[in-house]
Automatic annotation (TrEMBL):
Gene3D superfamilies: Glycosidases, Oligo-1,6-glucosidase, Domain 2. It comes from Streptomyces camponoticapitis. This is Alpha-glucosidase. InterPro entries: GH (IPR017853), GH13_cat_dom (IPR006047), O16G_dom_2 (IPR045857). SMART domains: Aamy. CDD domains: AmyAc_OligoGlu_TS. Residues 21-410 form the Glycosyl hydrolase family 13 catalytic domain. Belongs to the glycosyl hydrolase 13 family.
Length: 549
């Protein structure tokens, strides 16, 4: 397939794409065993076509013991049997592409599963073996090596080192079952380049890179004092050479990369988006920003400014498989997101949160660049509070039980209101329990309701494709011509608590986040609103509108 793909890359579809995130385990269950699978996704392709998305990003579907929701990969060339087979994945990729939907897969370069053949060989080979050089094995400190090799802190909290019976310790920045790879070893680099080719050869169009700033480590693995020492494992310069080699492979296939890049430094962030590295990166500052006009405007301006020097498109996302769902987050007193602030029993006004989430959907979909929609956001699903005895997320356990974890945004989707388990797939209870309220969010109910969240997303995504004000591709040829002006945004004068801006060809977006009902800017027609205007045609609080001037 490689020979057929580079030509379509000239369209640069990814610059303004609407990409839907599929968490396979919770999307749809095709065989009725309580776990989502590829057959379930294939059965729902017509739904995704009608929704109007350009691509699907699949979180890891590979063989995995699921110590961390699939981000502990045992074999990149094998689909986990719970989800299906490699042949089914190839069929899904091909069927989606025939329907105009591209596929993006997830690669986790920082670590593998402790069930990966490499790690099992390293355990068997013993201390000082070549097999252990593929990972970070070290002797401990203290009189008998009983202390960890350094003072690093795990991304999940706690000590990122585990000691084996033979005395060696191994590094895992995440869960114990996710040993970190040694990216200074040439075999690690070669293996990942081979994996990229494996999936590009099977028709995927893109790759999302998990924890993209973490794989390279200071070879000395020194102690780290924040604010004093250079960081030993975040954003190291060696990463850029790795991603340049990956980009060369992607260019052969017309493929694209999107990186998970959490960095506060705009200049350091932009380095990953240079023309010979990654195509895009997630905009995590916008996602975690509170529902506040001034803060959101700053986040938008900063995002566009940090992308401009390298000519990369911005990305916009409200929620993902790690983050509290938008409806819930916006219905709380603290409307921002911070992993450290998550707690059980946080009061939430779901009616308020839903109103704000509808407005936020129109805001994010109107901004220049690509947008990601996490499954279930188009249904307005709230965060579910999982009973403690059903929680599976390692973040909960590593916090000592204080963090509710990420399972609340991963609850299986409701498809059919009057079917068992809201039509997720069969008579078997899903792997995570659904709240009693789940049937009222079912896709079949919302599809027939013009006021539903699903109808709002469908209308918005249709307009985003058809209205000239959103388009950044011009020309009648197959390749098209990119119009740089199409990626611009111009702020309009507005009152306190209101965001108002124009795109190209007369498109206007107005969002009233906190003010009294506001007059709409001059326009010839109203394209779409997230809620009704008041009796005088003004935009109420927590409401957004798209206008044509």
């Amino acid at each position: 397939m490689a020979a057929n793909q580079p030509a379509e890359a000239t369209v640069e579809w990814w610059r303004d794409a609407a990409i839907y995130q599929v968490y396979v385990r919770s999307f749809a269950d095709g065989d009725g065993d309580g776990t989502g699978d590829l057959a379930g996704v294939r059965s729902r392709l017509p739904y995704l076509v009608e929704l109007g998305v350009d691509a699907l990003w699949f979180t890891p579907w590979y063989l995995s013991p699921l110590a961390d929701g699939g981000y502990d990969v045992a074999d990149y060339r094998t689909i986990d049997p719970a989800f299906g087979t490699l042949a089914e994945a190839e069929k899904l990729i091909a069927e989606a592409r025939e329907l105009g939907i591209r596929t993006i897969v997830d690669i986790v370069p920082n670590h593998v599963s402790d069930q990966h053949v490499w790690f099992k060989a390293a355990l068997a080979a013993g201390p000082g073996s070549p097999e252990r050089e593929l990972f970070h094995f070290r002797k401990g400190r203290g009189a008998d090596g009983e202390l960890p090799p350094n003072n690093w802190v795990s991304e999940f909290g706690g000590v990122p080192w585990t000691r084996l019976d033979d005395g060696d310790w191994y590094l895992h920045l995440f869960a114990t079952g996710q040993p970190d790879l040694n990216w200074a070893h040439p075999a690690v680099r070669q293996e990942h380049e081979d994996v990229l080719r494996f999936w590009f050869d099977r028709g995927v169009t893109g790759v999302r890179i998990d924890s993209a700033v973490l794989p390279a480590k200071d070879p000395g693995l020194p102690d780290f004092t924040p604010g004093v020492d250079a960081h030993p494992f975040v954003d190291r310069d060696e990463l850029h050479d790795i991603y340049r080699s990956w980009r060369a492979i992607a260019d052969e296939y017309g493929g694209i990369f999107v990186g998970e890049v959490w960095l506060p430094d705009a200049e350091r962030f932009a380095r990953y988006l240079r023309p010979d590295e990654l195509h895009t990166a997630f905009n995590l500052s916008f996602m975690s920003c509170p529902w506040d006009a001034d803060l959101l405007r700053t986040a938008i301006d900063d995002t566009l400014a940090e992308h401009a020097p390298v000519g990369a498109p911005a990305t916009w996302v409200l929620c993902n498989h790690d983050v509290t769902r938008t409806v819930t987050r916006y219905g709380r007193e603290d409307t921002g997101f911070d992993f450290a602030a998550k707690a059980f029993g946080t009061p939430t006004d779901l009616e308020l949160g839903t109103r704000r989430a509808r407005a936020a959907a129109l805001l994010s979909l109107a901004l220049p660049g690509a947008v990601y929609v996490y499954q279930g956001e188009e249904l307005g699903l709230p965060e579910a509070e999982i009973p403690r005895d059903r929680i599976e997320d390692p973040m909960h356990f590593r916090s000592g039980g204080t963090d509710p974890g990420r399972d609340g945004c991963r609850v299986p989707l409701p498809w059919t209101a009057d079917a068992p388990y809201a039509g997720f797939g069969g008579d078997t209870e899903p792997w995570l329990p659904q709240p009693e309220s789940w049937p009222k969010y079912a896709a079949d109910l919302q599809a027939g309701d013009p006021r539903s969240m699903l109808s709002l997303y469908r209308q918005a995504l249709r307009l985003r494709r058809t209205e000239p004000g959103f388009a950044v591709v011009r020309g009648s040829g197959d390749a098209g011509v990119r119009d740089a002006a199409g990626a611009q945004l111009t702020w309009l004068p507005s009152g306190p608590g209101v965001l108002s801006f124009t795109r190209t060809d007369g498109l206007i977006c107005v969002v009233n986040l906190a003010g009294p009902p506001t007059e709409l800017p001059g326009h010839t027609s109203v394209l779409l609103t997230s809620g009704p205007l008041d009796d005088e045609g003004r935009l109420p609080q927590d409401t957004a509108a798209w206008l044509r001037s």
